[in-house]
Amino acid sequence: MTATPAPGEAMRLGDLNVRYLPDGVIRAHPLQAYPEHVHLARDSELKLLDEDGMLLLSVGALLVETPVARILIDTGIGPRAIPIPSPDPALAAGVMTGGQLLDSLAAVGLRPDDIDAVLLSHLHADHVGWITPDDDTTRATFPNAEYFVGVGEFDFWGQPANMARLTAPTPQQYSVIGSRRHDLRTGDQPYQGIEALLTPGHTPGHVSFVLSGYGTQRAIVVGDAMHTAAEILHPDMCWTGDLDPRAAVASRHALVGELSRPGTATIGPHFTGTVFPTRAWRSGSDT
Ligand SMILES: [Zn+2]
């Protein structure tokens, strides 16, 4: 069986409704994505590869509805296709293709102006894609949203050498984020039930989010600290885009420790097949 992208799916966590809203997919050559650990990515048990032998990653947003706010975590690729940078011109590294997010939002009865906040795990292109509706405007797709970013992330992408990267936010997206930006440090709670956990390495200000339910129930949105379930099993694996591999490995090991605590579910927004790979509990159940 070959890999499939995660469907629109939901889970209940205490007062929070958490729903995955698909935007598109990443298809990446496994040799380029995991140059030192490609054999682990090709583990057939994990079903990470599509019919052409490319790694298939889900891309989208998480909608988190609290009793008082509607929040997106990340915003997908947007209406565009972005080639994945390749260090080897002979290797077709892959492509990121998006465009479905607003349709996914409409399918659950919401409009862009219903969104109160956008929490950004980091500012790579496949996470800020819908900050603006296209590349010709600095109009915000989500006009009522505040933006929350891990401390250090915004300044990093403001440096010209980084802004020139293929995976950088567009100047328009960057401008909109900067217009209503709040920085997050570990332990900050931008909304009740949502806590920031800095997990640097993939990018300098990468942040994961701990969602709290009742009692000890919680789920951790790992963002790009983990791209596939293989990285949970093998936290020393480095995705090619991890800007600081040593820090990324340290963050992954720390996350694996957090994820192993009782009552903790994993939410992997890029994971293949499902973004909820563990469901230790569901609505109305403590098991
Ligand atoms: Zn990503």
Name a few traits of the molecule:
287 residues, alpha/beta, globular, 18% helix, single chain, four-stranded mixed β-sheet, disordered C terminus
Can I get a quick summary?
The protein has helices at residues 30-33, 38-41, 101-107, 153-158, 160-163, 171-179, 230-233, 245-259; strands at 9-13, 16-28, 55-65, 70-73, 81-83, 94-97, 117-120, 146-150, 181-184, 194-198, 207-212, 218-221, 264-267. It is of the alpha/beta class and 287 residues long.
Instruction: Give me the strand/helix succession.
Output: EEHHEEEEHEEHHHEEEEHHE
Instruction: Report the major sheet.
Output: 9 strands, mixed
* CATH fold-level name: Metallo-beta-lactamase, Chain A
- SS-based class: alpha/beta
- Over the alpha carbons, how many angstroms does the gyration radius reach? 17 Å
**CATH classification class:** Alpha Beta
CATH level-two architecture: 4-Layer Sandwich
Strand content: 25-35%
- Note the total helix count: 8
Shape: globular
Q: How confident overall, as mean pLDDT?
A: 93
Number of strands: 13
CATH 4th-level superfamily = Ribonuclease Z/Hydroxyacylglutathione hydrolase-like
Chemical compounds bound to the protein: zinc ion
Task: State the low-pLDDT regions, or none.
Answer: 279-287
Distance between the termini: 30 Å
Q: What count of structural domains?
A: 1
Estimate percent helicity.
10-25%
